[in-house]
Amino acid sequence: MLSPVKYLHKGYHNFTHGFSKKTVIIIALLAIADVLVMVIPFYLKNVMSSVLIAKSLGILPSQFSQANAIYGYVALLSYFVGGYFADRVNLKKLTLFGLAAVGAFSIWYAFIPFINQGKIVQLYIIFAAWSFITCFIFWSALWKILAEQGKPEENGKLNGLHGSLNGLIGSILIALAYLIFWLTGDIFAKHMGQYAFTSLVLFFTIIIFITTILLYKIVPDSTSHKENNQQFDIKTFGNTLKNYKLWLATFLIMGVYMLQSGLSVVVTYAQDALKIIPFIVVLAGILRTYFFRFLFSSPAGKWADKTQNYVLFITIGLTIASMLTLTMILLPGFGGDFTKLNPVYQIVVQVLVIILFLGLGIACWCLVTNRWATIYQIGINQKEYAVSVGFISFIAFSPDAWFWQVDSILLKKFGAENGYPSNIIANQISLAVITSIALIAAVGGLILIFVLNYEKKQQMLIKQNQQLATI
Q: pTM of the prediction?
């Protein structure tokens, strides 16, 4: 029987997949940075209703969705060039500058609730700046630094450990931040209520600058940009675009991203349309967004590495997640006033929606963990990794623009802003869009599986013919 110390050591070894302590520390810092650049513009709405965030900022929900759409539009202009840029500029410097710049704009965002003149324009500028910094400067650099911490065949383990640490750290940070928001907004509302949202944002901003310092001191310089420091090759660039397998993988990853990002709509759907107690929604949001990432990312990465069939793994996951989302849409009936349904059935729907939301959280993080590993399965080499990430991001993350634009329009036309009892119809249509994209992506995954299997068989035939020719 193992002693407690040996048992803990074995558990740590399994969790970290045998990576060295130095590598684990580097991955942990990258995971914290990954949380922090996304937490204020995106992850907050995974645990807090968008309606509540908009109210805290002093704007309409449709205007908040429009700000998210602007983030997406700027991202479309940044992703691809950012990937090429990360191949040729010092990755550590890009990461440090990007993280610090996100922190600087977060200070401005923290005081938006107190601004009366030009509030909306300033909000849109902040979201546009966050997008440019994250997507052009920070994003591709971070993922390439992560990829360099192990071998290509360890990609799933690297992403899994990164995802698990991201989830664990994110759970702690978002819980502390919401505690601050709750204390200032509810318990000490009389004296500090107006500072609730500002306090929450400033808490994350302080952590951003601390992490920047730690990254500077601990993460070593990358030399890969020196190896790839050649002139831009239009022909090579064009060949990348002609890779049809990369396109199929891109649509597969888009389906994953729709579930990961778009399902923040469920938080508003649950709290405002289905009248679920805010504390339960926040708790479910923390579990789904962060803690489940901690629990399931590492095992999912390890499992996918064993099979080396990341595309099949994601295709199956997308199909399951789509069925869960469809059920969530249909349970309360389409449209109408939820409060007029039978009280017992209301409770049943509320409980089932929370269970489905948690189930989607598990599915999402298993998928997110392995989405970038598809690049290696389709034969993209390390030299082209960052460019491929940028290209995929340009297409696969485009819902950041068009989906939130659609959501903003739906809230204006079918939400409380236009006299409806709640935003239930707008939320359900948005969820239907997410489900449709995920199912289409699953079909693309099936096509990619067929293509990869066909190529594998062809390669085996060529090898057999070569062996026969030598006899």
A: 0.77
